[in-house]
TrEMBL record, chains A, B, C, D, E, F:
Signal peptide: none annotated. The keyword Ribonucleoprotein does not apply. Pfam families: HD, tRNA_anti-codon. SUPFAM superfamilies: HD-domain/PDEase-like. This is 3'-5' exoribonuclease YhaM family protein. Residues 167-281 form the HD domain. Keywords: Hydrolase.
């Protein structure tokens, strides 16, 4: 089996193909120039320094390029690092498509589209249905390719749609368990809640905040688009359904301190907020735990108040207590 | 159909049977004594004043007694109030069982026991299974009759078990949706998380905090019982499974400010905390909205940062936008 | 000179015309019905109780009606109160226009319009100018008649426009004093910053929050209208000037905790926020101090963290220190 | 035109005169000693390392000395840095006055004195006037040469007086706009509010906190001096004017958390606090934006909660929207 | 034995002498005037209403007067209240000295003076000693008669001196236990830390905040007096000892939020702050517990974050565990 | 006299014996391996780098080993550092016992045991006495050898017992000064309050948090042990004395934010919390000040909100003010 970037053990030498995620030219204390590069494939990222860099090197080894890399896995300040023996651009007869080296959502684009389509049929309120269709249509391409965040959770290609679908699944469970929930409102809110990120973020690769993202935030961005869409669909600006839908989006961060201009004032808005939080938490914790061994603590998770999480040793699931598994009550 | 206590309209005169929830003897500014009573049936509560109270009246009209009540529904300081025409203890040939007038969980005790039994079979880890059985056994009677809180959410007979089951249901959905969750730990934690309330609270009626509840809180109460039970079951005090289970219970309030001595440091602990919060939120909002009419705002909900929630006018679910319900993607 | 409602001294008997601000029918402990009324004229408000209320009384003595009132100024729980001797609706040959009894801005509507017009000429940036014109036009009537808040500051007819003008005046001083400020952006932001209140609030009389106000807040309301207006004016949604203007509006509460989804990230946005705060503070303090005598403390001011303010005894401005008023430096 | 320190472009070689702001002797990993120097002129600061440092070098290249510097502008860890080719002390026939290399207030000392003098004439209350004169006299030299802060805002020679004057100017606008403000109190408070910094800080160069500054803070320092001065001027300690003036100074940080032992309880104290904050904010933002190009974000500003500010691309001020600039209202 | 005001049981009739603590004339809903009086003796306070009040009654029954009172102990809204049968001013041949009815410190004035004198001898640093003598001399009368607070803790005549002595006692224990503490500084700081309350508060009876108290607070009041005293004693303003002593006083509230302009930066200042807090806490808790019976909770204590405290049933101190009281280690 | 590790001055060459506190193998930028070591003796710690490290070196130079060290005291990034000339393991005929190089409590183990024994006799309540004996017995060895914290305060061998004794001493003073304190409860609480640290921490050397420590915290650890011990001693779980003792332990951090699941609700619990805080504060400040010279500020102290403390120049204790040391009052 092919080894990936993070599979090599300490001091192991290797040859492989990787994507350049970032590359900065710097000067060492001794005056020599070098490229500080971060390499990436679907297994993760590791930095390395490329010394004696020529002008041509600096121009060709740029973010987004796939390279053939020969080197050794070392360590610097207790973090993994690659000592570079040889590096050149990948040829067209070699693996050279950047998308092959980027993490992707665990569902295919088509599976995600199917799920979304199915949910839209359940949005039986005309106002919500039409607005959701209009806006998903407008941002479809970005919606299925963007990450859900610059870093933190669901920070992979397709992460935005996948995070939306995770929330929709939980929402279906909640609708089943509790009576009296306005399901179309909840689903419509879930579908639109993070759609503004297609404008807030620059794209699936080298993701940065746009000017609109920095000055407005994704809540206000999509809120204004909902109004615009409603206007074009001939829906009155004071229509209660429209106000409810805007509230779902504007309040989904839950607290003013987290950027929601209003706290949830609808049952469905409170539910959306809590499901959003839960899906993001689970994803962040699972990502962090995936990087450590049983019996260890994860790195601090910024999005969870810098908590570390513990990975237990073994998950013994056998049932051997000798007790008769008879009913308790 | 029989009208209940909160069904009578303004100025309506009535005869009915109700439970005395509380009764305090007071003196009015003009020097006369009266009983300030709160009447209750399953529809809710309304206060009333009983004037010219004799010593005998004060002794017989006490909390927990069912009375025949003849009066008029009035209003005082914008709150409903009953003007009492006549009041006497209910006779044994009349409705007189206090439990008939108290709200109950929407599942029967047996249904709840069945669900719990079933879940225990899914706790395939022997350590968790044995501890859970031991403690549920010890507190079984209280567990199925206590409320989940003095006020706030699930404050009805059987509320503690019902709240536990609601969390278990959500937990099953989460386990299905996300891989890699330690289901036995999550279920065991959910079953025990509020069990300390059987010691923290005084009982299903006239619920107050006990001294142990006030000085220790239900987290520390059940934590110590887990250790005691493990000790008797011969489980070592430093057994990792035991430590994990204790952590589930101790951390389930999520924040130190909410009384958890440790924040969640396990994926399952974080999930339990979030499910606990979500179930409580939904129940509190639904209760509050049930008391108001469409287009109105609920009272402030203490357990949700004093927010008011809005009850929309109509939940139109028809799908008549003329658009062909074809797939979007 | 005619005495106003708050001019009467303790125990003084009087006849006058006043506006009914609010009137609630209640039942006293002794079972009798009465109307709890708040009377109002431009001098302030005083409550009174109208006893032995007939059905007809309850129907005619409603908010918004002007009445002839004969009574005595008394005190209840240390607050002024009116003992009502006689009350009837004002006839058409008596003062009976409600607007005569409501506080108004210290500028006439025309003076305010002139000032706004003049400022618009100074908005020399086409994007800002066109959007400001479009939105002020749409909401002109409300803009010049609404208060700036339900209570707190500028809670009088015309208060919204007057508050806006106060900020513009301070903004002109700031632009003069500091070089490099984008004046058109600052003025446009000031003109629009609270315009959403024309939708958030119900009107100049008996002001309440609308549903849109409660669910969205005036920041998001006007933000979406800016986008809609820009769309109709053919201004591109990603135009930098448009984004800056939206940011001015969205960030003007300064802190996320105060409902701004973004904190100010432009020099002009920070200035707008601080001027807004300063004008509101001065107005609240001056209102509170106007009600007390020198040497006393004002009531607690809710909008200023419940602080009380002190009114000094005398403001001696004579210069009699015997020192020669020669230059110091 | 002469280029300044921060004008040189990447890799540019240069000769110039600069001030040594700080110089620390350190040992590199390879064991060699070097001086880590920060060079400064009125354009800003850049660090550089001076290698192979002799004992004599270490004694002559100290903070406050002007040097002839020959070197190249490079970059280290993405920050500008100077590679030193040659360095020696400036001779007396070369630029060698340290004050030539330090930033100064944009007004001359005389202009500032004139403005202060004029304002003192407007302090028509004898108590305020005499105390202000006494204390400005005592600290005159420091007042016109000190910075207003160790870093943050107005951190240049003369910054303290300039910051005071900026507040006075804004205060004049406020006095003009709002009636009923006690102008002499406001001006006297503004003049004294930061005067304690002449004791709190060590001086205009290499500014540090003094022991008194660290243990007492500039509010308590000047407060005690006001009392001492009043005592010598024969003003009674309980004189209301004196108490008001002390309150102006003690409360001007606005919040207890910011070191004011009392929050503002006078209209004038609240105004002073807000003007102080506004002037500091504008200055900090303008300084931060001056260092970046249009379309970029400033560094985080510590004194403004670590916010970054955005510098827009172009400030188009032409009025070409084709619309007739007729009156709107 | 003579019964005191709070000794009478429910419905008990009595005759006694009491002090009028406060008396407000009010109008009942039925239009009749009455005096709302609070009666007081050393056992505590109880309110009562005096009906059919004449003009003469209103003039003679004022705060500070001792009255003969005949009445019954009743209850209103669950709080004790007195039904007044008869009331007249006490004659000169009856108990009529107000000071007999006010709580006092548990030490006599002379005992407190002796303790203070003794401590001053231990302040062997001349700077501290001279300043302490000067200020205690100036405020001696108030220092030994004022309470330590308007309400909260030590709110009795002589409370200020007694609280100071309690801290000094604890300080002596700390000095004995830990080496290296600057005892003279600690004692001097303790002696002066609350001395400003003699200016902040109006007096031992009917204690209110003065204007100086409201605008400056007792920390700044005494700080300025220290400087003034030092100035007259010829101690230089920058003398380190003087700065340390000022810091002790200014920082003793511990947190900026509690009104200290600086947090403690000296070991002795931190100790003073903690001792101050501990003595106040113990006094507040003991006062609150004195009012309830074993097994009950106290009222909420404002100065301790509104906590209630529990009074245990019995304090069994017998040693009967059958175990031999041999050494453990 | 023998010089210790931190006694050597800059650039001084030396030979000595020291303990290796930590040793990590790293790779320098130039690719060479080195050991980053921290050396320690009772005077403190200093790091050093050991270059050209062989496999054998890495295996023998590990934490806990005593080495002969020849080197020079240098400085790196303004922190002291050792340049290593020669290093080898200490022989058995040289100083080689690790305990000789670790800081210890200022009392011997026997002195501490004597003090504890004596205090236990004063715990005259049988319930407290028996539980305290049982738990101290169980953890005796750790109790007298563990530090009281991983870092912060009392982080030396025996620190846990010494910290407990310091609190007991202060508690004795408090009991003497204030009447009505339940001394046996206070002493028992003090003895047990931190005993859970014997399970929370890994040991006196290379102290880390254990899994139980991380997941439960020392409060819950000892709380559960108290319950277990009481169970075995036949003390009923709802015995009031038992609940009080558990509350002492659970509430001793004072605030929920600091990990106490309940805030103190007993007078003795509040006292224990404040004494705990005071002893820790004094110890932290004294440690920090011991490292700096008079006139300097300490490093920031993490456990005291990152405050720096000032070390005054001289503590002049002579009494030479010329004033007659006569009584003041």
């Amino acid at each position: 089996m092919v080894k990936h970037l993070t599979d090599f053990s300490m001091d192991e030498e290797f040859e492989t193909y990787v994507l350049i995620k970032s590359a900065d030219k710097r000067v060492a204390k001794n005056g020599k120039s070098f490229l500080s590069i971060v390499f990436q494939d679907r297994s993760g990222q590791i930095p390395g320094m490329f010394w004696d860099v020529s002008e041509q090197d600096a121009q060709q080894f740029i973010p987004g390029r796939v390279v053939y890399l020969k080197g050794k896995r070392e360590s610097y300040k207790e973090m993994p690092q690659i000592k570079i023996y040889e590096m050149r651009l990948a040829r067209t007869d070699e693996p050279h498509d950047p998308l092959m080296f980027v993490k992707r959502a665990p569902m295919t684009s088509q599976e995600m589209k199917d799920y979304i389509n199915q949910t839209i049929f359940e949005i039986t309120n005309a106002t919500y249905n039409r607005i959701v269709r209009a806006l998903l249509n407008r941002h479809a391409k970005s919606f299925f390719s963007y990450p859900a965040a610059k870093s933190n959770h669901h920070d992979f290609a397709g992460g935005l749609a996948f995070h939306t679908i995770s929330i929709l699944r939980l929402a279906h469970s909640v609708v089943q368990q509790y009576s009296g929930i306005n399901a179309p409102l909840l689903y419509a809110g879930a579908l639109l809640h993070d759609l503004g990120k297609t404008v807030e973020l620059s794209g699936p690769v080298g993701t940065e905040y746009t000017l609109a993202g920095n000055l407005l935030g994704h809540l206000s961005i999509i809120d204004a688009e909902i109004v615009e869409a409603a206007d074009k669909l001939g829906i009155d600006g004071q229509n209660e359904d429209l106000l409810l839908l805007r509230h779902m989006v504007l309040s989904h961060h839950g607290l003013l301190e987290y950027g929601s201009p209003e706290r949830p004032k609808l049952l469905e808005a409170e539910i959306l907020h809590e499901l959003d939080e839960m899906d993001a938490s689970i994803m962040m914790i699972q990502n962090a735990l995936a990087k450590v061994k049983p019996g260890e603590y994860s790195d601090r998770i910024f999005g969870l108040d810098n908590r570390r999480f513990y990975k237990p040793h073994s998950v013994d699931q056998s049932h051997d207590d000798g007790q008769d598994p008879s009913r308790l009550f």
